[in-house]
Amino acid sequence: MQDGGDFSAAMAVLASALGCGMLMGIERERRKGDGPHRALAGVRSFTLASLAGALTALMGSVALVAVGAVFLAALSVTAYARDRSGDPGVTTEIALLMAYLIGVLCTHDQMLAAALAVVVTALLASRDALHQFSRNWLLPGEVRSGLVLGALLLLVAPLVPAEPLWQGLLNPQVVMRLLLVLLVIQSLAHIGRRLLQARQALALSALASGFVSSTATIASLGLEVREGRAAPKAQAGAAVLSCVATMLQILVVAATVQPAWLAHLWLPALCGALVAGAWGWWQVRGTALAQGEAGGVPGHSQLPEDSPMFKLRDAAVIVLLLTAIQVGVQALTRWLGDTGMLVGALLASLADVHAATAAVLVRGAPTADASSQAIAQALMAALLMHAVSKSAVALASGGWRYALAVVPGVLGHTLAFVLPMALMG
Considering only 18-22, 113-117, 324-328, which range has the smallest mean pLDDT? Predict the structure, then answer.
């Protein structure tokens, strides 16, 4: 194709470059302006740049391609130096060079070139929205959180060893994945609260807090009831809504530790989440709507001015707890067999059901033998024990009226998980 032997293929490349250049050029033409202060390039310049890139690449000379890129770069620098407008940005200049390179790319992969042209055009067209988002909507704490999450994901995670330590009891890569998953979940919950909190503050706050610890959320809401600062029914509904996060995080932990168990856990977890969501929403909907109406402008964030997307220290503490309990349960299992696994899971569930889930599922993938049956029984027992623990926390923190509204939802959503799992065998 680069030798000019395939005419139809060459025409296809040029047609693709023509379309990509026109797409980008039409967007720039709409913002080019008129008169002596108009921008550098419009629809014709972008189309010609893209065609030039495709043509130089079809000629098969790398030096010619480089000369074309240098020429466009020099042209952009000259235009920028002579710019006398009130908006001396370099977006159009960079986009013009991108159009040339996309034209070159059309000779290698036309689909990728077209997709890249669409992405670049979308970025160009979204200038006002992106400026508004970065300058006004995004908080400083969220920027810092994004940088921390990016550094952990791109710099730290690849360096963490994947080989299990301590005779297979601890896998640093799994620990790192758990930390990243928790941070991403907290970030998504934070964004949800930013977008919708003004209408459903109580329900969404409880759901978001549940991704950190539903037990702590139940205790915190109960203390507000005991101090007379909130109504028991609304707080109880929010407390049960936090258990939706418990069901979702069981799936997250399973996907991270032992993905093969997802096929056996998704239906019980969905049933449990639906029961918790229905019970909690039924209790909290009236209060949530009232608070939403009194909250001011719909969609306006009521979070602190410098609110981060996640709390790294809290997530790290949870991961350390998960890891310590997981190592402890595996040690008990090696010592006492299935009995040790059951005892360890029950003890772990008193503190955190996700730790118990990770400790139990890490033993192996689901099979038809007695070992998988013991894992499933330990997981169901851990969830039942955790429900009892949450009920006791509700009674201790908020009193009997609060507990009477919380306990049916907690036990109900737990049974909605356990019963389908038991019936599935």
Answer: 324-328
Question: Under DSSP, is residue 165 helix (H, G, I), strand (E, B) or coil?
Answer: strand
Q: Residue 106's closest CA among 15, 182, 30, 180?
A: 15
One-letter amino acid for residue 422 of the chain = A
Domain ranges of the chain: 7-133, 139-424
Whether 395 and 265 have beta carbons less than 8 Å apart is answered as: no
Residue predicted with more confidence, 34 or 422: 422
Amino acid at 331: A
Q: Could you give the CA distance from residue 375 to residue 28 in angstroms, rounded to a whole number? A: 61
Residue 185 to residues 179, 253, 305, Cα–Cα distance (Å)? 10, 12, 21
Highest mean pLDDT among 97-106, 168-177, 213-222: 97-106
Nearest to 330 by CA among 184, 166, 177, 140: 166
Residue range 271-309, pLDDT digits in tens: 988 998 888 888 777 554 444 443 333 333 445 456 677
421: which residues sit within 8 A by CB, 6+ positions away?
A: 264, 265, 268, 376, 379, 380
| pLDDT computed for residue 314 by the predictor | 66
Distance from C-alpha of 384 to C-alpha of 289, rounded to nearest angstrom? 33
Rounded Cα–Cα distance for residues 227 and 76 (Å): 66
At residue 86, the pLDDT reads 55
pTM: 0.51
165 — phi, psi (to 5°)?
-110, 165
* Spatial distance between the Cα atoms of 179 and 175, rounded to a whole number of angstroms: 6
Q: Structure tokens of 54?
A: 């495709």
Return all residues near 425 (Cβ < 8 A) that are at least 6 apart: none
Structure tokens at 83: 């710019």
- DSSP designation for 255: H
